[in-house]
Description:
By secondary structure, the chain is an all-beta fold. It is 0% helix and 59% strand. It has strands spanning 2-17, 23-29, 44-46, 52-71, 82-86. The mean pLDDT is 95.
Amino acid sequence: MLELDQxxxxxxxxxxxxxxxxxxxxxxxxxxxGDLEGWGEPVATFQESDSGTNTVTFDxxxxxxxxxxxxxxDDGQVTVTEVRLQR
Length: 87
C-alpha cells in the first residue's frame, strides 16, 4: 500500500519484479480503509504477468493506492523490488 500526504490525481502504477505467473489488482481510495472490502472495486488489473517492469494506467483521484496480488508467482511467491506511482 502507498499512502500520499494528500489526495491527488493519479495516472499509473509501475513496479519491478523478477517473478512470473502472478496476477494483481490495483485499488485507489481517499485513505486507507483498513480492509480489502473498504477499497471498493479495483481500478486496474494485471492479468498477464511477467518479470521486469509492469505498468498499469488509470485516471483516479486518491490518497492511498493498494497493489493486491490475487495469485502468487509460479514459484509460490511474488518479489517486488521497486514501486513507482505517477501523478
